[in-house]
Amino acid sequence: MHDREATDTGRISTIRRRVDYSETDQQGVVYHARYLVWLDVARTEHLRLTGMSYREMEESGFQLMVSELTIRYRKSARYDDPIRVRVWVRAVDSRRVTFGYAVEHDETDVLFATASTDLFVLDAAQRLTRFPAHVAERLVATPDPVRL
Question: 48, 60, 88, 127: least surrounded by Cβ within 10 Å?
Fold first, then answer.
């Protein structure tokens, strides 16, 4: 299982990895902030799989800024667990996109956490702007595959 191995099944993308020792506390439980890193990696890979990357977006003068994050921890992921993070677009409008996430054990399907992030699109001067048409057309909303 490779870090950042990403797959796309229609409109839901998945990254897979194994929990590293450095991501856990003394009890072998994943430190809560590590989930945020995994969400960011999953979202970045999802965009890449839809045909655009953050780098390409920034080079064309646009950036995404996280404006809201909600995470619900359900079970503890532990050292050496194989995990997958699924990500999809929940909603999109002219200036904002909402992503949904499910962090799961990759072999037993145990749900460790669910999350949602809202991101606004900014222009090169850091002003709120609209999604360019070529970006908006790739951001297709998908029904939640799990209850967030």
Answer: 127
